[in-house]
Design goal:
The protein is mainly alpha-helical. It has three domains: 7-97, Alpha-helical ferredoxin (Fumarate Reductase Iron-sulfur Protein, Chain B, domain 2), CATH 1.10.1060.10; 100-156, no CATH class; 162-209, no CATH class. Helices cover 48% and strands 8% of the residues. It contains twelve helices and five strands. It has helices at 7-13, 25-29, 37-48, 56-63, 70-74, 81-96, 100-110, 112-129, 162-165, 184-188, 191-203, 219-224, and strands at residues 130-133, 138-141, 169-170, 176-179, 206-209. A three-stranded mixed beta sheet has the order 3-5-4, covered by helices on one side. Helix 1 (7-13) packs across helix 3 (37-48) and helix 3 (37-48) packs across helix 6. The longest helix has 18 residues, at 112-129. It is globular and about 60 Å long. The mean pLDDT is 88.
Length: 230
């Protein structure tokens, strides 16, 4: 078991005030105490006391958290709910391994040139397997796939990634300069975020540096429990 946090101590410090419940993204979808922040914490305490086996059901519960950190913002005891869940996911990864499709995705993220090719192919052929949902700013599968249900909302794909859309240096008349580290979703899916940022910086006469060799921050792998890849 990981040793960064003592799960039982964190569990004991939870006063069960319930302030985390209304802000929990998962609890709004699945109103179950087990998948609430304080429910996660209780389960972690039981897990460390060897009162709970890390089986498939428990794995699914711990993997259901979005790690949005909304609960940590309102917790009166500042409990690191997101961080203890991240840590137990490392135990889950050690026991169950990382799903093959996640390993493929992490490999693509480590090799941006390969990810660029896959995203271009995805943009060209996306209408074959997906349909756009303009009101939801995404797309859904046209039929059930092995790892995707037909109603699963996915981010849409852009024709050109943010990093490939702009030069490395964008000069203005100003004397200030900033660098942009763009996240993977903003690079491939929500490119309008980066476009808006560039427009604002230009309007403020701020020079822009966009490192072309920037890598993925590895958050997807880390949040999955794949600490070794990180």
């Amino acid at each position: 078991m990981s040793e960064k946090f003592h799960f039982t101590s964190v569990s004991d410090e939870c006063i069960k005030c319930g302030k985390c419940i209304p802000v929990c993204t998962i609890h709004q979808v699945n109103a179950d105490e087990v998948t609430s922040p304080r429910g996660f914490i209780d389960l972690l305490g039981a897990y460390q006391r060897d009162e709970l086996d890390l089986d498939k059901q428990v794995k699914d519960i711990f993997e259901s958290c979005f790690l949005c950190t909304a609960c940590t913002d309102v917790c009166p005891n500042d409990l690191p709910t997101d961080m203890v869940i991240e840590e137990v996911r490392a135990d889950i990864a050690d026991k169950f391994g990382i799903a093959w499709f996640k390993r493929v995705f992490f490999t693509l993220l480590r090799h941006r040139w390969l990810m660029d090719i896959m995203m271009k192919l995805g943009f060209v052929f996306k209408t074959c397997g997906f349909k756009q949902e303009p009101k939801k700013s995404g797309m859904v599968p046209r039929f059930n796939l092995p790892i995707l249900k037909a109603d699963r909302l996915l981010p849409s794909l852009s024709k050109t990634s943010f990093l490939n859309k702009y030069p490395q240096e964008i000069k203005t008349k100003g004397t200030r300069r900033v660098a942009i580290f763009i996240g993977c979703l903003a690079n491939y899916n929500y490119t309008s975020i980066g476009d808006s940022l560039v427009d604002v910086l230009k309007e403020l006469d701020i020079d822009i540096f966009i490192p072309k060799r920037q890598k993925c921050c590895a958050a997807p792998a880390y949040f999955t429990g794949d600490f070794y890849t990180v």
